Every structure is written in C-alpha cells, then in structure tokens.
Amino acid sequence: MDHGAAKVPKVLVVDDDETFRRSIVRVLGALGYGISEAASGEDALISVRGATPDIVVTDLQMPGIDGLEVQQRMAADGFDFPVIVLTGHGDIDLAVRAMKAGAADF
How far, in Å, CA of 65 to CA of 50, rounded? Predict the structure, then answer.
C-alpha cells in the first residue's frame, strides 16, 4: 500500500443543463478530479449524503431547488466543503447573497 499517494479531490457538479454539466465534467475529469454529477438540486442533496465531495460546483438557476438553496441546505446539514456557484444570469445582488451564504466563489 502506498501511503504517499495523493488523494484525488472529489467534485460534485450540479447543473440541470446536461450539455453544460457534461462539459464541466469533461474538463475537471481531464484535470484528474474525481467527478460525480447531479442534474438537480434535489439530486445534489441526495448525492452528498452518499459520497461527500471535497467541493461542489453548482448552477444558480435550476428548477426546484436552485443553487443558493442547495448551498444553504448543505451548510444547514453540517457540510463544510467549498461551494462554487456558476450562472450565466448573475448580478451583484445574487453574488452578494451567494457569498454571504458561504459560497467559495461566484
């Protein structure tokens, strides 16, 4: 057993847009990250309970539970990994809300 091997960081990618989600997964996978995917906020909340990621990259605007609510619920459940919120429709107010809620980046 090699105790000196580096741990591969696990990233959970959350986006309802399959094409965009697959693009992020492909790039992060090529960089050597371990990847899991969720197509909705609801799926993301289930996924983190099964296999806790090291970081979450989530879309902001999704049907049902949006990215900010995903972030807030994960924090309320005691998960303390960084969350990066992505959006093509952001503004300053949303960025402030995301950062105040604990987002690592917006």
Answer: 19
CA atoms of 70 and 1, how far apart (whole Å): 37
pLDDT tens across 13-64, in order?
999 999 999 999 999 999 999 999 999 999 999 999 888 899 999 998 899 9
Q: What distance lies between CA 52 and its chain's CA centroid?
A: 11
* Cα atoms in the 13 Å half-sphere on the side-chain side of 56: 33
- In degrees and rounded to multiples of 5, residue 40 shows phi and psi of -155, 165
> pTM here?
0.80
Residues 82 and 62: beta-carbon distance below 8 Å: no
**CA dihedral sign of residues 76, 50, 37, 12:** positive
The closest alpha carbon to 67, from 32, 33, 34, 20, belongs to 20
